[in-house]
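Field: COMPLEX_INPUT
Field: COMPONENT_COUNT = two
Field: RESIDUE_TOTAL = 656
Field: MODE = joint
Values follow.
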Amino acid sequence: MSDATTTGEEVVVTLPDDSELRVERGTTVEGVAYEIGSGLGRATIAGVLDGDLVDKVTPIESDSRIEIVTEDGGTNEYRRVLRHSAAHVFAQALGRLYPDARLAIGPPTDEGFYYDIANVDLDGDDLAEIEAEAYEIIDADLAIERFERPREEAISKYEREDNPYKLDVLHTEAADAESVSFYEQAEFEDLCQGPHVSSTGEIGGFALLQTSAAYWRGDEANDSLTRVYGTAFESEGELEEYLERRRKAEERDHRRIGREMDLFSIPDHAPGCPHYHPDGMTVRRELEGYVREKNDELGYKEVWTPALNKAELWKPTGHYDTFTAEGEMFNWDQDDTEYGLKPMNCANHASIYASDRRSYRELPIRFSEFGTVFRNEQSGELSGLLRVRGMTQDDGHAFVRPDQLQGEIVDALGVIDDIYGSMDLAVNYVLETKGDNAVGGDDIWEEATDALRDALGAGDFEYEVNAGEAAFYGPKIGINAVDAIGREWTIGTVQVDFNIPERLDLTYVNEDNIEQRPVMIHRALLGSFERFMGVAIEHFNGKFPLWLAPEQIRVLPVSDGNVEYAEAVAAELENSDLRVDVERRSWTVGKKIRQGHEDRVPYMLIVGDDEEESETVSVRDRAEREEGGKGVDLEDFRAHVEAERAEKRTEPDFLA
RNA sequence: GCCGGUGUAGCUCAGACUGGUAGAGCGAAUCCUUCGUAAGGAUUAGGUCGAGGGUUCAAAUCCCUCCAUCGGCUCCA
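Field: COMPLEX_OUTPUT
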């Protein structure tokens, strides 16, 4: 790509616009910026060298791609630098208030920064004090300076300060370095590779958000440290916006909305096993119906298999070893035999496949099941509907000939795209490849991975690759839904599996009457109903599309005298299988409306003497639009909502 | 599983630090009001203070154990 080549003491750097520049070997990032222009040079705070964020004094030793990070533009790189500096400001403030605290590491993250610390116990009030001290430091606009110190000197410094974590860093990452870099601002200094902004005053908005625990180097055999999370922005305003977004996300918490809307509960007697209440079950039944429709389209035949099986069912497939080793399977001895609750449905479906002799003419053979599985997730991992121990997957397994493989995957991806699109969920596809716990040979994995990659390509789906993250039995396309406020959730999945057919000796007979190995495709469209409901609740903020809403229409009589007419209206709409309630409480109209909005009902029909006389209704929707006055013909309204329901529109639009 | 927080009426929360007969709002029930597009009024009922143990004359409150839950960590479909 380059016609310029390295000669002797020169290296070639490639700029973001693909232009190239020759500079002397050892020139710093900042030096390159000055080569480009003195304005850029002065504005430089850091660089990105071949994708890695580095300090501006980093020398360039070989040909590389370079990007100059400056403070304008509010780029992600700049924010990372700013937040790294904010982590230092936190550490400085902490040191002033808690001189005994020991610093471990404090990197920037996507949303802010954290600093792991030891020897200190902090609660919410303490964070507020530290935050106030941090603002002192920011207001003082202290210059942030980089300097080098011989590694030996750094070691003795941290031995004096009794800081095992910094010493650990010096003895591992920096073991071969002659000297190491420090950053200092006033009385504070920290072992750090940088980069940093030039002074503390560049931080406009600073907030400490929460504390938690984390192990040193993420290993539970190590010390447990206190981790303080915070964030920082160029300005107070941007910080406020961020905090507001966080508050909004909290308000959408599906556990809270689930309680408010009486959708589900997870009582103490069944940790990780949600109970669906009538309205939650209504939502689930609608989702089930939708999936059944799609399964019919795809040619999946519904089956049902039991939760309780002998443990030996899962031994040949490798599930038993994998799940039992992790303590994830519920199994126990009963009358001298080991039984278990199924952690996946595939072994049962494979047994149905194997129950008959299969011809190549029959393939693909496809089974679907709303299969309830149980996995003993660690107690600390359980989280509402999003991480559970008992869940029902909209599972499906297709047994195909190798030549049918790609088409089958493409079809599944197409349906998934369809379903998610219908709910305004964007989808990110993630290709997950062979990991350490994988069973089966490399060649088989490669073949399966290629099949998935080809299908993604054939369907023109963009995807990212997550190396080493696949399930143990085969590579996978993870379906990550992106919700209304930009969060990503792993829900559906498509996996190719050559291993189970091999291990269970599944066969079909080809045209030459020779036994062949089918390929197995595992796929879930929504993933599990539990997680999908949790995501849908947060995505829609409880304001389900009409087709999903437990209560679709509420009829509000203006006074008690109109109840009878309200009931007649409701009965009329119920003839169209609409879910309609009548508000019979003797409340004022205003209060009934308020309650209707709080309950997130898509449509309210308000009926008083005027409507009763003209045999109409007055319509108000969830978005506070209203159509009163002359009134609305009930048949017009019925026709509209029937269409709205059938087309699965996401917002009530009769009044749009 | 690990670290830290939390658990009081159906819901949201006060009371706990400093031990002395358990409170509010919403919701519910009853009554009054019959109301026109986001909260009409009154009365009443409702709590083994997560469970068990301990300290004490006395425990929601202090101590211990367990359970559940929340935030992370780790793990992961």
